[in-house]
Amino acid sequence: MAAAGCVTAIRRVIESCSKNKPLLIELRMLCMPIIMHGMTADGLDCIEDVLDMTALFVYHEFEVGQIIPEELWKIFQHLLYIVVGKEDDPDGGYAFEFLE
Fold first, then answer.
1. How far apart are CA 29 and CA 44, in angstroms?
2. Residue 90: predicted pLDDT
3. H helices within the chain, ranges in order?
4. Do 47 and 39 touch, CB atoms closer than 8 A?
5. Is this prediction's pTM over 0.90?
6. CB of 53 within 8 A of CB of 10?
């Protein structure tokens, strides 16, 4: 529960820095391990905050015409796995109860 509270606090710090693009780049690099852990079965308790952080990075850090970096595209692969699962899994991913 304390870890989820820390992730929420980190998300709020990112929100408050949304106008400072150089700082957002540094924060994104620091937060990528947290975001990637939030996409695992152990870290799904804080997936909403992790998805909010990802959306903040994509929305505020990149203007029209800029390329989204590869580390943010890795998050998309994990989201697909969470929702769809493996090819041989007919029930889909493991996080339906965590995603709205």
1. 21
2. 65
3. 2-16, 21-38, 47-61, 70-84
4. yes
5. no
6. yes
pLDDT tens for 87-97 read 776 666 666 66
Q: pLDDT per residue over 8-65, tens digit each?
A: 999 999 999 888 888 888 999 999 999 999 888 888 888 889 989 988 888 887 765 6
Vertex 96 angle, CA 72 and 36, to 5° = 25
- What does the alpha-carbon distance between residue 88 and residue 60 come to, in Å, rounded to a whole number? 37
Q: What is the pLDDT of residue 33?
A: 93
The answer to whether the beta carbons of residues 79 and 39 sit under 8 Å apart is yes
Question: Half-sphere exposure (CA, 13 Å, Cβ side) for 72?
Answer: 18
Q: How far is the CA of 80 from the CAs of 32, 49, 95, in angstroms?
A: 17, 18, 11
Residue the block writes with tokens 């709020």:
12
- The domain segmentation of the chain, as residue ranges, is 2-84
